[in-house]
Amino acid sequence: MVDTTTMQARSTGSLRVPRYAGWIGKAVGSGLYRHTIGRLADSRRARLALLAGVPLFWIAALHIGPIFQMGRISFMADYPQAPDGGSAYTLANYELFFSDQLYFMPFIRSLIFAAVVTISTLVIVYPVAYYVAKIVQPKNRMRALLLLLIPFWAGELIRTFSVIMLLANRGAVNVALRELGFIDRPIPMLYTSFSLSFGVIYLLALYMLLPLYSAIEKIPTPLIHAAADLGAGPFQRFRRVILPLSKDGIVSGCSLVYLTSVGVFAAPLLLGGPNTVIFPEVIATLFHSSNDKWPEGAAFAMLLLAVSLSTVGLFMRVIGGRSVRLM
Amino acid sequence: MRDFTATRRSTLKLLAAGTGVLAAPAIIRPAFAQSKVVNITTYDKFVPQSFIDQFQKDTGIEVRIRLTDDQGKQYNVLSAEGETPSTDIVTVTGHRLSQFIGSKLLTPLDTARLKNWDKLASAYKGAPQLTVDGTVYGVPLLAGFEGLARNTDYTKASDSWAIMFDQEYKGLTSYIISDFLQITMRYQGNDGDFVTYEGKPEEAQAATNKARDYLIQNKDMVRKYYDAGSEVQQMFVNEDIYVAHSWSGPAAKLIMDGHPIEISVPKEGTYGFLYSFNVVKNGPNTDAAYTFLDAILSSPEIGAAMSRQSGFASAFDGVDKVLNDKERAAMTLPQEQTERIQFFSSVNRDMKNEMVDKAVAEIKAA
Q: Are strands B37-42 and B89-93 parallel, antiparallel or unpaired?
């Protein structure tokens, strides 16, 4: 719909229509343009709708679209389909998960692993975020934050390989311990639950650090001083003042770390051992297996997505309350 | 920061930019389909860079390499692209060929278009692994086998796969589960390639389960299950493992580089495989693909460079004369060990894949 003011301006000839040269001018002057996009662009509301359309289409096509396609494949009997054949729809791929105990253990292991990693990351990163936000001089805060962020400029795989070089039998830690005379034989640290957790926490610490820093930095320092003046000890100040006021950051950071760690794939593949197989590896095996098992893999991926989103939703509702939002 | 005002001009500019970004995928596909380009999906270090540089200089055809480390991944990508593949040449192992052909992903090879076809070693020219119903589907490149690799500094010599289950090396072994399951079946006196189980699913399942249970029972022997050759190389170099099942290429490469590694075929035998370059059906640059394939066959030096880089034995004639003694020693087995290699067959693949995949998942989950 054309604005009334625009119509009036047009009728009086006072509307300044931009002039374009060359083919753009011809295109803008054409009847097709004037009766379609040109007419829409006259209205402020339509312009906003047009602008919103691009990002909405982007989100739908590149974010929701692949998940929808994955969901569609999860109900198919065969995929990839033969060039000359179709595929029936079925629930058998979901039934497989519930009927075969084989897949249940890695699934539970994944959820527990993600929960442990999330809690550990919170415990490790919280003091760091507090230190940067409250102890470091305000003029040096950005510098300190930048120092913490530098490792994250490298890719995830590079950082994973750096963990391997650190923890391998001939890695930096074992070499240092041997040179210092603490050990004769290397301690097998790599390809264990320890190396996997260490690596994933290192990879995901940033997702916890930034929301926590943001939340803690906003806590008024005089409030903490006031609590101290009123006789609250360090622990009581933390429990009664700092922790409740940084709840938003905790919930955001935990949600991000949990959702990322529950689906983490490359790090377990490189750092994990025979007893640390988690669900994303099982899903990947189904996609890479010799017989085409994309539908089963897609069904399992949808189950993981549903359960992890539900868990985070529940967590945000119980811990976060109404004020909590992601980032 | 100034507030954004959605004027006519800014709206149109943003719309144009957004449309351009969204249209990018449609622009990318034609970019692959240029007559002066050949897109190749292959393993790391299979095609020597020196050859690529020379080929590009001589023909003006740009070589675009995409790396894969797994036949399944390569098959999945090609399947997903369907009728409009963006790659021209893929690297398929002989025993996986039937799967690619069955899904109509490859086109028969027109050997008449390859004037250097005769430069292949006679044993590999139209090798049975690459021939289906009398039609040749691939240019053989490199041959390898599933070997027993060990660190000679820390382990004793062994002529049996039993060393993989020796308590002395507890937590110091590694293998690719699907491959080693088949070797374990062979170690237990069964047919790990399932050829003799055609029409006998109960017998095949019993043999598979027996090997699966044995591997689960000995799970504490394993440091890590791996997938790619580079992983086993890294574990040997870092001394995280002392004994492993390994493809011959990665182990031979370590030997060539001077690491204390030995690769052998134990008395129970093993399986061999043949890598080939295959022309993709409906590939965007088929003419350029044939030009590339003909060029790669042109001299034994190219075959030798491929062997040096990958560690696998070349299928090209005359390569032995080009390799030096150290390289030859790393890739050559004693005659009695060579005779223990049985090439993987494409017979009864579906049953084998089904049972092996299930057993692999069970071993991982146990």
A: parallel
